[in-house]
Amino acid sequence: MRSIDYFDKMVRLAPHRDILIAGDTRYSYGEMHALSHRLAGAMHAGGLAHQEPVAIMSPNHGAILTALLGLWRAGAVWIPVNTRNALDANIAYLNYVRAGWLFYHSSLAKDARRAQREVPSIRRLICLDAADGDNPSLDAFMLPEGAPDAPDLGDPVGNPDELTAIIATGGTTGPAKGVRIMNRSWGALMETIGNLMPAEDPVCLACAPLTHAAGPVAMAAVAMGATISVLPGFDAEGVMRAIQRDRVTHTFLPPTALYTMLAHPNVRDYDYSSLRYFLLAGSPVSPDKLRQAVEIFGPCMCQSYGQTECHMIATWLPPHEVAAAARGEHPERLASCGKASYSVRVELMDDVGNILPTGAVGEIVARGGIVGGGYFEMPDATAEAALHGWHHSGDVGRRDEHGYYYIVDRKKDMVVSGGFNVYSAEVEGAIMELDAVAEAAIIGVPHEKWGEQVHAVVVKRGDIDEATIIAHARARLGSVQAPKTVQFVEAIPRTAAGKMDKKALRAPYWGDQVRMVN
Fold first, then answer.
1. pLDDT tens for residues 102-129?
2. pTM score > 0.70 for this model?
3. Pairing of strands 203-206, 250-253
């Protein structure tokens, strides 16, 4: 099926159910269906070509949903723009994918006009929330109410190899690569999430950026007939209040946002009984913090592992297993990202293409329905990522005898000290057990004898010193993996995708030296 087909199924089943709550804005599925036709018709009248890339550049806002459903109905390809990126990087990406249209929020009007000047392919600008000079508002641009429904402008048979989106990778090295999200891989993701996270009367809270994982989660919720409650951004107490107010059943946040919520003085003052799935993804989660989250939010905590290239749910750790681990049944699973999901096969591979046995450490590779179509107009990078017939994640992990996967590092972030591999996620997890630690990052820094030594960058939550951290890690992991030095900082730098920027952390130590990782 096409992306718009999942929405249309729910329109037929529940036309009067709310699809969107965003501030004072509220639309039903039936009303949104009409809006999507009015927008698609206007885009078609404006000369939109089939499979033309259409960008949306906005902070979280309810109109994103209208624009997204409208452009899909019109047969366009969604280009989400990360507003946390530098504008130069976004302009380079829009040139790379040759975006033809740009929907933008009025708060980014200056950026949108510069993008139009510097991206020759952009020929139409639409402001999502207000008129902006010669650029119409979304409401004004759409066909008027009562106009005949626009024809369905997409491929009527749902070509599985057509694009539904080109989504930028969130890496920290070099220009972003655009992952080709196909009808077939997007559909596999929608169906996987729907099968793994069913709920009656679903309400999905979108507070993380819709340009990232929150977007696919929200659209999968739409495929289940959910109401999407949109917040303009992450605010810990705002999220807690919205969960109680809207009786939220589904939400997604990265682990760092969870930690902020857990540390909030009012975290125990709200009613979370409606929550069925509080999904964590994007980076490994501290087991101790996950145990605390189960205590506070209830048996709703869950984890997944995936990537833009291998869409989000390659592995799945469901709420009942997280809750059991928090009670002491297989507590080691609090550090796991779960088992392979329905639509993908996950294995571990060595550097020459051998599938590794249970217990061995290797690169996580995958094949199956949720693997996308490679990188947009980058055949060499696509071939490299698909070496030996598997998608290569660049992540290092292991699998236990029960089929549970554990992420231990990014290949490029692994520290090699004196010939021993030190996996940063394991060391970070040990340090995060300390109540006085808010966040920790492990990097390798140059050492004359060992090549690299383990260095910890730590954000304090309370009173703690270097010796205490080193002693705790040594007791938990041994002397090789324990950090030899600790640096205390106010905040750990993050990429535009919200991940720890270890390249930035390493830069002061390595300078022009070449850091070698096997």
1. 999 999 999 999 999 999 999 999 999 9
2. yes
3. parallel
